[in-house]
Amino acid sequence: MYKMNAEQEKIQWLLHESGESMYKVAKETGITQATLSRLKSGITSLEKLPFEKASKLTTYAKQIIRGGNNMRTWERKGYVVVEKEFDYDLHQFKIIQNDEVIATITPSCIEDMQQLITDLDNGEDINGWEDGMGNTIYVEINQ
């Protein structure tokens, strides 16, 4: 049985912040570009969107957050690290906890990215790492 779920925040992120084109979202969800454009511009409110369509958009947003683009994913206790395309060969790493991106690591160069991948492959935890912007990352694990 398929579980349907609709989350307004995920849909807003998908439409406004994900970087996905409306063409691609339409193609992947089966929802017309016209409907997506009306939602994005605010002509149609999310509250008036049929639940089935809202569920499809939520599911697609979660797929993108989790790395539905064949990039690597590393699971750790309480969070996931997902590799994402960023700037040609340089990738970012999204730290996801409870389906929310809580931090993003942006390596400064390919060598730093390769070291990060090696460390993740070796099972290292990301706590104490820098995000590339001078901030230290710490993930709280809820028991």
Q: How many strands in all?
A: 4
Judging from the principal axes of the Cα atoms, what is the shape? elongated
What summary fits the major beta sheet?
4 strands, antiparallel
- The helix fraction, in percent, is 25-40%
Mean pLDDT: 87
Order of helices and strands, N to C? HHHHEEEEH
N-to-C terminal Cα separation, in Å? Answer: 29 Å
**What radius of gyration results from the CA coordinates?**
17 Å
Low-confidence segments, given as residue ranges, are none
Strand order of the largest sheet: 1-2-3-4
Class by alpha and beta content: alpha+beta
Helix count, DSSP H or I runs of 4 or more residues: 5
Q: What fraction of residues sit in β-strands?
A: 15-25%
